[in-house]
Design a protein that fits this description.
Largest sheet: 7 strands, mixed
Strand order of the largest sheet: 3-9-8-7-6-4-5
Number of helices: 15
Distance between the termini: 43 Å
Number of domains: 2
CATH topology of the largest domain: Aspartate Aminotransferase, domain 2
Number of strands: 13
């Protein structure tokens, strides 16, 4: 009883702040057009950047693989859950991002926690951008290393912290493309700073793989080899339209993670049929460069039309285009009005983003048409003018 009372109080407090989260129940496959509670919506909130999540070839690949492999993998990778599909997917991902070897994890959250926790200990130090994804922040906490956070994209502050550290091992953590702002970290500069101060660099490329570097990711986009960016993580659930994640790097790094990354060791492997379908998704991403080109064209078109309609823009040139409104109540009012007009956008409030930076998070896809983008922006312009 006492626990429920305490929990209800915490929930009531969050509700009073207008920050109580709720889930949507989709009645359709993921895509640009989705159905919720019997109503159609134009979806600008999905990370399915290349429009692969409901691709017919992937559906067929998953169905065929399910017929062969069934559903569950049955065990962790280190017991009897590691199939030939997992093995081949790891090899193909490593080759795609230009690394010696890759290691599959069930989620990006587990990949980041597993890698950071395995690589650091009490005598070490971790340096992290304040707006890093929660999984990187939590990995640093679990590692028990000394945590030093630097201001968002503030590399001068990072250099001061690196220069004053006497830790045994130093690890710099950053997103490549930041999930709420859409800005891209300067990985070339981060790599140089890490090298100057005896640190290693780890990058979460969840929102870069498939889009940056001709689809091969942020490391290739910035021309960084395995030595310059030794720990690379990316997910399969965004541009690839699938599910799961991987860490890629040297043979030594990956073998070390096999032995010491607890979320890898003690978790049931992803279904082998899903690994098989992800291999097809990777192949489609490689062969269908028009999808990546369409995303780039949609980003440019969105930003041009937004300027013409006086819709406020951020500095982002990625597929993530936030419209910062600042006030939580104003945000939720505009978001609800958009829902009433059948537009689905992310309404992001603290604590996910800093105080005073509540925003609409617009995600652009290769599947969006110019007509759909125009329609959204016209609606946004009208609502923002009257809000």
């Amino acid at each position: 009883m006492s626990l429920d009372i305490e929990l209800r109080a915490a929930l009531a407090q969050r509700k009073a702040l207008g920050r109580l989260r709720s889930r949507l129940n989709l009645a359709s496959a993921q895509g640009v057009e989705v159905e919720i509670d019997g109503q159609p919506y134009l979806n600008f909130s999905s990370n399915d950047y290349l429009g692969l999540a409901q691709n017919s070839e992937l559906r067929e690949a998953l169905a065929q693989a399910g017929g062969r492999w069934g559903l569950g993998s049955g065990a962790s990778h280190l017991v009897c859950g590691h199939s030939s599909e997992h093995q081949q997917l790891e090899q193909e991902l490593a080759a795609h991002v230009g690394r010696d070897r890759a290691l599959l994890f069930s989620t990006g959250y587990m990949a980041n926690i597993g890698a950071v926790q395995a690589l650091l200990g009490r005598d070490d130090a971790v340096f992290e951008d304040k707006l890093n994804h929660a999984s990187l922040l939590d990995g640093a906490l679990l590692s028990r290393a000394k945590r030093q956070r630097y201001g968002y994209l503030n590399y001068e502050q990072l250099e001061l912290r690196l220069g004053s550290s006497t830790a045994k091992r130093k690890l710099v953590l950053t997103d490549s493309v930041f999930s709420m702002d859409g800005d891209c970290a300067d990985l070339r500069r981060l790599s140089a700073l890490s090298a100057d101060y005896g640190a290693s660099l780890m990058v979460d490329d969840a929102h870069g793989l498939g889009l940056l570097g001709d689809g091969r990711g942020a490391a290739l986009h910035f021309g960084l080899d395995q030595q310059q960016l030794p720990v690379y993580m990316a997910t399969l659930g965004k541009a690839l339209g699938s599910f799961g994640a991987f860490v890629a790097g040297s043979e030594t790094l990956i073998e070390y993670l096999v032995q010491f990354a607890r979320p890898y060791i003690y978790t049931t492997a992803m279904p082998p049929a899903l690994a098989a379908a992800s291999r097809v998704a990777l192949k489609l991403m490689q062969e269908q460069g028009w999808r990546r080109a369409k995303v780039g064209a949609n980003i440019a078109y969105f930003r041009r039309r937004a300027r013409e309609l006086d819709v406020p823009l951020s500095s982002s040139h990625s597929a993530i285009q936030p419209i910062v409104l600042g006030d939580d109540k104003k945000l939720m009012l505009v978001a609800e009005q958009l829902r009433q007009r059948a537009y689905l956008l992310g309404a992001i409030r603290p604590p996910t983003v800093p105080e005073g930076s509540a925003r609409l998070r617009i995600c652009l896809s290769a599947a969006h048409s110019k007509k759909q983008i125009d329609s959204l922006l016209q609606c946004l312009a009208e609502l923002l003018e009257s809000a």
